[in-house]
Amino acid sequence: MFFGGILFLLLPFVLFSVTAGVVAYFVVPAIVQKVRHDSALVTLEQRFARGEIDSEEFKKRRQELIAR
What's the domain range around 29? Predict the structure, then answer.
């Protein structure tokens, strides 16, 4: 009886932990990828604004980033 009661109390914790782990496994990489992608676009826009690359190079690289 004692172990059954402990298992019953731990069950919600275990289910929550597993659910949080699964969500983190699938969601966190997507968020990291989006941040990296946005960062690359910002860097590209800054380089264009500073005149380091011309309009044609900007459009080409931007298209490559967006296609990913």
Answer: 2-67
